[in-house]
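dumping this here before i forget
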Amino acid sequence: MQPTRIDFSTLAWEEPHPGMRHRCVVRGGRKLRLLDIAPDFIEADWCRKAHIGYVLEGELELVLPTQTVRYAAGDGFFVLGGEAEGHKAKALTPRVRLILVEDA
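structure:
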């Protein structure tokens, strides 16, 4: 597969849940998302997907079964996913903007 330039500004925002919106591209079994989370975003259930992320703006809190971790702008993270790494995301600032890479 050839390298692909992604111009997120040309993609429409999708709002799959209240308080969360994203612009998304899927290529080669991977998903790249520009994601905004607001403080009113509440995950109803534990997310069990694996993610690689980078916080562009704001402060994000990930609640895991055994700990809670905060990430600020400039922080990257890996969440392995699966039963043991279920997690819930929470915005600690008026907006958290991040990039996520995950399986499609």
